[in-house]
Amino acid sequence: METTTNAASKPLKLNMKRTFTIGFAFFGILLLWQVYDSWCPTFLEQLFMRQMGTSESTEVQYLVGIMMAIDNLAALILMPIFGRLSDKTHTRLGKRMPYILVGTFVCAITFPFIPLFFHLNNLVGVIIMMAVVVCFAMMYRNPAVALMPDLTPKPLRSKANGIINIMGYIGGAFATVVGIVFVLTDYLGEGKDTWAKNNIWAIEMPFIIAAVLMCISAVVLAFTIRENELEAQLADELAEGEKQAAVADSVEHDDEKPMSKANLIMLILILAAEFFWFMSDNGIGTFMLNYSRNHLGASSAGNMVMTIVGGVGSVVGFAIGGFIADKIGRKWTVSAGLGLTLLGLIFWLICQNAIGKGAYNEATGYFAFPWYLYVVWGLKGFGMSLVHINSFPMVVELCSKKKVGQFTGYYYMASMGAQTITPMLLGLLLRNPNIDWGFLPIYAIIATSTAFLIFFFVKNIKNTKTKNVKGLEALGADD
């Protein structure tokens, strides 16, 4: 069902320059997490295997899953806390910027110690450094994400979120390219004395480069986005955005009141669906490198190229997803993204069973990375980008400007809750002697299908009376 709100018709224009600048915060976030997620599961796998004296990677995957889940559990607890704190913070730098700056610089200092302790075969050191990075990353992640809706009228947030995510994926793609240059298999190759002969810079440089770029992005953000000044300048636009919000019941003056039943049901359904699509996405993301090495027998470089292909698909979706939502509404845009992702996962399962591994290369000792995974990741990247850029605005649409950090916390509670459970669950399933790495696409299909079915019941609220500036004029910066 499509609902039209009784909104005013004053045109709203997205400030592209300011939105790209705010995107530097997300650039640093995805740069950090791309490096973290690409390398830390394999670091843990290798260290646990040596501690347990086993050569079977499946024997330790549940431990890897538990460690990755503990990190996400910390995020599940800390992100809502810092979101609410930043809502109530008032400083000369603004309410979000202090958390962004402190969190970024502490992460930058500690991040390179993770591969250093791995090189020294120190499992405890790796775990402690991972914990410090996660805690301070959560200090700045919620405020950094909340900064966009703070300074963007509600009807423009899908387009703005697309730009923010493009900036983030530039950071993630850069991290992946660096990972290809310093290929993980050069350090962890079969038959090598990992702790004595291998070059530590092969694993250290991605972390150092990420730390430096995170600091640069934070400095750019601090010097160009003056929160207090901008909030005062944008007061009229933000108020107009409240009038044009795509919600069942107005939230403009409901700061001290409970949510209406219609808005509450909408919030619960969005968060429940989000939980399951993150169960899928994070589950395969956490174990994909190990799947490539252990199931496909392929070089890690192929996995990194696949990540770039997915990133390209994502950038395309980020660029056009807001415009699609203007035409058909955010609900159907998210549903289309989930449907495309599900098709890609089914294609993966079919090809895995029909084609299997790529051709074996005797010179390298690896199987070729299968072509069909590039197709899957391109399709999944595009589909999930439509999901992500529209689902977050749908959540913060349901609150006033005084609760953006709190509702950003709700959004991340759902995602981090999934990312806490899914590594442990999938790791435990992989210990079952009747389940092998080929179960990975099946798991993703089940979780994505569940998300798709839940989201079907979300009400589609499309504001057909909103008049946003279109065409070339929309690309100009505000005065």
Question: Strand portion, in percent?
Answer: under 5%
Question: Which range best describes the helical content: under 10%, 10-25%, 25-40%, 40-55%, 55-70% or over 70%?
Answer: over 70%
Query: What is the CATH topology descriptor?
Result: Growth Hormone, Chain: A
- Fourth-tier CATH superfamily name: MFS general substrate transporter like domains
Number of helices: 16
Count all strands and give the number.
Answer: 4
At CATH level 2, the architecture is Up-down Bundle
Radius of gyration: 22 Å
> Looking at the chains present, what oligomeric state does this protein adopt?
single chain
Order of helices and strands: EHHHHHHHHHHHHHEEHHHE
Helix/strand/pairing class, anyone? mainly alpha
CATH class: Mainly Alpha
User: Mean of the pLDDT scores?
Assistant: 82
Largest sheet properties: 2 strands, parallel
Low-pLDDT ranges? 1-8, 190-196, 464-479
Overall 3D geometry?
globular
